[in-house]
Write a structure and sequence with these properties.
The complex is a heterodimer of chains A (261) and B (185). Chain A has 261 residues and is mainly α. Chain A has 7 helices and no strands. Chain A is 68% helix and 0% strand. Classes of the chains: A mainly alpha (261), B mainly alpha (185).
């Protein structure tokens, strides 16, 4: 390859780009890269993912520790927001899992707040959404799956398997139903984690695609409008996906605590 | 020289290839970053969990419990005060009723006293009037008797004079008997 050649290929790429419209990189925002310098990403490297995970943790500390430091009977604004989260998740855990599920409330609160704050921090321009990564959501999803399964066996012994054996179904159908139930049980963590990552990724990628169209002057007003609309939708999705992940966790926990339907 | 060009060419190729690979595949599916993400995620979750379970949640829980307790106490205190107010009102009503009863009792007693006094005064007055009446009646009778006596005497004298004027000698005894008989008639 000569420089001349490279020049021609550049021209060709440009022409190609103009032919199809524009060149988009909607997925570049998800690239995990070292925060300081270049080089490979080791397990201990401080990356942009590390930064935004830390910011999520920091936000939670600010709201829940610094915000509630007054311990006021009549709460300050930040304290009442923290109390709102507390009451909301506490009620959800109590309603879904019953009274014996309340001792798992701190775990569920951790999951909810992490997803909620990651989702919303991910909506900042130039940010990074840990929850858009299947590696992150799979840890959460499979973590919930493993913990819930262990709780089920510890609490109910081998009787936990009775969850798959529906005694009110006709005897002939029970083995078939049991197989379906077992498969659906093992699909849970997969759907649990892909649902969250898929929602966040799709929304962020869509915003980026619309942003790419803004390079064409004639289309840019529509593009800006579309970005605003999708952004509004993403605000909803950020909250709803955190809620959905949490309530599914509660439902799985309820199944482990009370396997009899 | 030729060797160098090959290296450059190779490098460029590799860069292009790398760019193509990262452009085509989703960064989410790049396994080389998984260990990094998982490690830092676990660190973050552990930090959040400890901050929440050790500091934030017990604090907020105790504040909420304290608030619920305060509200319950306040409601109980308000209930108690309301009860007291009701009692005070009842006591006031009772005192008022008692005072009214006492007042009407006093009025009744005063009325009765006045009535009895009035009755005794009336009786006294009646007695006095009766005594006066009797006295007066006696006086009138006396006067009437005196008058009758005078009239009898005047009649006897007049009769004697008339009889004498007619030239008769009037028997005093007969005349007075006749006059007395007439007077009785």
């Amino acid at each position: 390859m000569t420089p001349v050649n490279m020049g021609t290929t550049d021209v060709a790429t440009e022409a190609h780009g103009e032919g199809t419209g524009l060149v988009f990189h909607p997925l570049d925002q998800f690239i995990v890269k070292p925060l300081f310098g270049e080089g490979p990403v080791h397990w201990y490297t401080i990356t942009n993912a590390t930064l935004w995970l830390a910011l999520a943790a920091l936000s939670i500390v600010l709201l829940f520790v610094v915000g509630s430091r007054g311990r006021a009977i009549v709460p300050s604004r930040s304290q009442s927001v923290g109390e709102l989260f507390y009451g909301f998740i506490y009620k959800m855990v109590e309603d879904v899992t019953g009274h014996d599920g309340v001792k798992y409330f701190p775990y569920i609160m951790t999951i909810f707040l992490f997803i909620f704050f990651s989702n919303f921090l991910g909506l900042l321009p130039m940010s990074f959404s840990p929850t858009s990564h299947i590696a992150t959501t799979a840890v959460l999803g499979f973590g919930v799956f493993i913990v819930v399964t262990l709780i089920g066996f510890v609490k109910n012994g081998i009787g936990f398997l009775g969850m798959f054996w529906l005694s009110d179904a006709p005897l002939a159908l029970r083995p078939i139903i049991a197989i379906i139930e077992v498969i659906s049980y093992f699909v849970r963590p997969v759907s649990h984690s892909i649902r969250l990552a898929g929602n966040i990724t799709a929304g962020h990628a869509m915003i980026k695609v619309f942003a790419g169209f803004a390079a064409i002057a004639a289309v840019s007003p529509i593009s800006v409008l579309a970005i605003s609309a999708v952004y509004g939708l993403e605000v909803l999705v950020a909250a709803i996906q955190a809620y959905v992940f949490t309530i599914l966790t509660c439902i799985y926990l309820k199944d482990a605590l009370h396997p009899a339907h | 020289m030729a060797n160098e060009t090959t290296v450059v060419e190779h490098g460029a190729d590799a860069v292009a290839h790398g760019a193509e690979a990262s452009g085509a595949a989703m960064p989410q599916l790049d396994p080389s970053t998984f260990s990094n993400q998982i490690f830092w995620l676990v660190v973050t979750l552990v930090v959040i969990y400890f901050v929440l379970s050790r500091i934030a949640l017990p604090r907020i829980g105790s504040v909420l419990a304290e608030r619920a307790g305060t509200i319950t106490n306040d409601i109980a205190a308000a209930e108690e005060l309301k009860q007291k107010a009701h009692e005070a009102e009842a006591a006031y009503e009772k005192a008022l009723a008692d005072a009214r009863a006492e007042a009407s009792r006093i009025v009744e007693a005063a009325k009765a006293e006045i009535q009895s006094e009035l009755d005794s005064e009336l009786a006294k007055a009646d007695e006095k009037i009766a005594a006066k009446l009797a006295e007066s009646t006696a006086a009138i009778n006396e006067i009437r008797e005196g008058a009758i006596k005078s009239v009898t005497e005047v009649a006897k004298d007049t009769t004697k004079e008339i009889v004498a004027a007619f030239g008769g000698k009037a028997d005093a005894k007969t005349v007075s008997a006749a006059v007395t008989a007439r007077m009785k008639g």
